[in-house]
Amino acid sequence: xxxxxxxxxxxxxxxxxxxxxxxxxxxxxxxxxxxxxxxxxxxxxxxxxxxxxxxxxxxxxxxxxxxxxxxxxxxxxxxxxxxxxxxxxxxxxxxxxxxxxxxxxxxxxxxxxxxxxxxxxxxxxxxxxxxxxxxxxxxxxxxxxxxxxxxxxxxxxxxxxxxxxxxxxxxxxxxxxxxxxxxxxxxxxxxxxxxxxxxxxxxxxxxxxxxxxxxxxxxxxxxxxxxxxxxxxxxxxxxxxxxxxxxxxxxxxxxxxxxxxxxxxxxxxxxxxxxxxxxxxxxxxxxxxxxxxxxxxxxxxxxxxxxxxxxxxxxxxxxxxxxxxxxxxxxxxxxxxxxxxx
Length: 342
Prior knowledge:
By secondary structure, the protein is α+β, with helices and mostly antiparallel strands. It contains eight helices and ten strands. Residues 145-189 are annotated as: Disordered.
């Protein structure tokens, strides 16, 4: 299995080199979240926001703007910008455009801080940049947000000073106070005591539970498509079913390319064609994203990259398949931690 996987990697590299003459470009991608509690970070109450305008601005050494471009987030809160040629994006930053309120009502009143671009990938005259998640905030925190741990105490009410005593008015006579009545202490009833509990015979020991299925969800693991297609690893198909349609998992663009009847199990068998290879590696990446928190792509980014590859050129589809394949193989650092199902 290892040598065939290596040959497939080599074939992709050779094919990519053959189309190296295509136009070079750089791509920038990231996400925008609605910071509902206005705490400056992504928390449980925040969500990706649709329809927000993001501006990428590049400046020179004197702080003068040299290039600027704007894009709107999609249904997943994701935005992607393409710059043709080989622009220098080292001094560029991304920020939610001020006054951008097309997203959820009331969540565009204020924009979070700008974030610098980070180079993630460079190959075949193509560069991929990522941006830390951008924030946009409502005018006031939502009512369900946690309150501040140090609330501000209300100001003390000033007391009214006593009225001055007029010398001409004689003081009122002092009436002697009545002594308090003696306190009669009630007689306490005797303490209530529960009767002793009867002794029951000891319970029989609990039966031994069957061993739990392997759960590599919290550890780093990445498995190739050959492993996902093996019957002994069927128990790892947890979030997705083998009969799930590709059109349901990846959306309308995948339905247009592959039809509405192709299942994820059939997608794992794809080979011999560029777009069938893309479907196979995208399906494998989607399964790995649900199986391990430490997989390089989460499920949303797998679907997003797959759809952009289907909309773009064959060269983009090839590079996307190559990146998915590299992640599915563990990138040389992570192994597949499957154990046979019982």
